[in-house]
Amino acid sequence: MGKIVQLPDDLSNKIAAGEVVERPASVVKELLENSVDANSQWIKIELEEAGLRSIKVIDDGDGIEPDDCEKAFFRHATSKIIDEFDLFRVKTLGFRGEALASIASVSQLTLKTSTGHQSGTEIVVHGGKIQDIQKHTKRKGTEISVENLFYNTPARLKYLKTIHTELGHITDTINKMALSHPNIRFECYHNGKRIFFTPGNGNLLQVIQQIYGKKIAQNMVNIENDSLDYNVKGYIAKPEITRSNRNFISLIVNGRFIKNPAINKAILDGYHTFLPIGRYPIVVLQMNMDPYLVDVNVHPAKTEVRFSKEKELFEIVKQTVYDALHKQTLIPSGAKIEKPKSEQTVLSFDPLDYKNKQKEEREHLEDLNHGFKVNEVFNDPSPKRELIQENHQSAIENTKNPEEPNFTEAEEESVVEERMPVMYPIGQLHGTYILAQNDKGLYMIDQHAAQERIKYEYFKKKLGNPVNEVQELSVPLNFEFTSKESIIIEENKETFERVGLFLENFGDYSYIVRAYPSWFPEGEEEQIIRDMVDELVDGRNIDIEKIREEAAILMSCKRSIKANHYLNHQEMDYLLNELRTCQDPFTCPHGRPIVIHFSEYELQRMFKRIM
Prior knowledge:
By secondary structure, the protein is of the alpha+beta class. The protein has three domains: about 10-195, Histidine kinase-like ATPase, C-terminal domain (Heat Shock Protein 90, 2-Layer Sandwich); about 205-325, Ribosomal Protein S5, domain 2 (2-Layer Sandwich); about 330-465 and about 520-610, formyl-coa transferase, domain 3 (2-Layer Sandwich), CATH 3.30.1540. The chain is about 35% helix and about 20% strand. The protein is built from 21 helices and 24 strands. The strands form six sheets. It has an eight-stranded mixed beta sheet, covered by helices on one side. Strands 9-10-15-12-13 form a five-stranded mixed beta sheet, with helices on both faces. Strands 18-19-20-24 form a four-stranded antiparallel beta sheet. Helix 11 (about 350-370) packs antiparallel against helix 13. The N and C termini lie far apart (about 90 Å). The relative contact order is 0.08.
């Protein structure tokens, strides 16, 4: 007798439930997706004991016809796809026809539904078996109650966590659904108490505020961009708002919440040098496209998708985030105080008076005849820098009184476009932070981070178009590689030589390097060469742009002034003026903030001058 048998429906449904229904949050997800697909404008979720005792989802959607109610509990029964063509143009969240059958097989489920045109239907299913069918009210919409989840599969219950943990998973699911459908009003109750709601007016920022709070919502930047194939829009947090993991990056494709490492990387690349190492932004990104360009049928939970033009989508996401951040003034506030609606009297700062004091100080310093050079103090790589007194004098003469502007039209345009305000140094704290002021308040500037940014942009520009010069070595560098690495090196010798790196075989798996590109940072040559070999071994192309980027960061860090280095007034003034010429003067190359701002209002609140 053969060993292969066909499993009965109740057992196959329980096996399917293992993929679809992992915990109460899985039930909520499947039911919410059905409600959204039914064109609901209002969805209510009622929970008892984090869904372990009861889950009820009520909506005002299209409802189910009486003749279809029983069919809805058959496996692979769906109204959302008809043939193979539909499978590759999925426009709904659910489409496999497994949700209700799987949920009903491991619970005691009651469905009440009506299309609003005739009497509704109530159907009771226990453990996958229909217990009762009868007529119900005419209220348009659907109500599904799921009780005693996993009552007939007790082994599943032991893997569930505490009520608080399970409730956390459920609220996370509802949050995702609310972010992907801001036009739907969501309400969630736990043990009779409302714990979440959204207005359903289509305003995504209001949903973000409901989930993350007012402070986060106030620091979100709106983004939107289009290509021939994609529309990208949403909100990204300013770099001062970060989290320790990627869980706060929300990706939504045609209303479907997904996970995609490539798109995550595109977002992080758009934040380039704005984020500290190990920190991640809060992002809600909606991507809309022809359903034909995305395959959603690649994962049982439907959270992973495949794009047919992923590289194009990657580039538009990266550029959209990058452009949005580069239009912002990204100076974080040192004190988070909510401003009241009533007007408050603030102290005034007169730049003209400050200019006169600077002039007096300059004249005194010129009498002392200080003759040091800028590049001696700051180790400045640019040979065009002259004496610090000349730069300082020029900065003073170009200082304008904001109350009496005297700019040409071109100058006025450039001032408007400047993202870093003019700041006047007033001192230094612990030899590490420059204190400066203007009519907007007080600023603290990390001098090391500031010069890192200045030098980083200088080296990045220099290394972006390096001359094809190589550094000849009097004593060659020696390397020992594995057999696999040696094969890769031999196959890619031309690739190495194109970038100015010459690896010569020195017997077995040994190699020597007699010359390498002159832009390699001193002391890091061996590590860079090994990194290039590792990239090829891992099946990637050598990313010279990335290597040059890392080299620029390394050189800028090593050659910048450090903490506990005391600067005179001229040096501080010069550094601040140089910072204002940077493309991105707000963070160092490692993502740490350069400038912190305390407004006049915040200072007066802290000193109780105003209440």
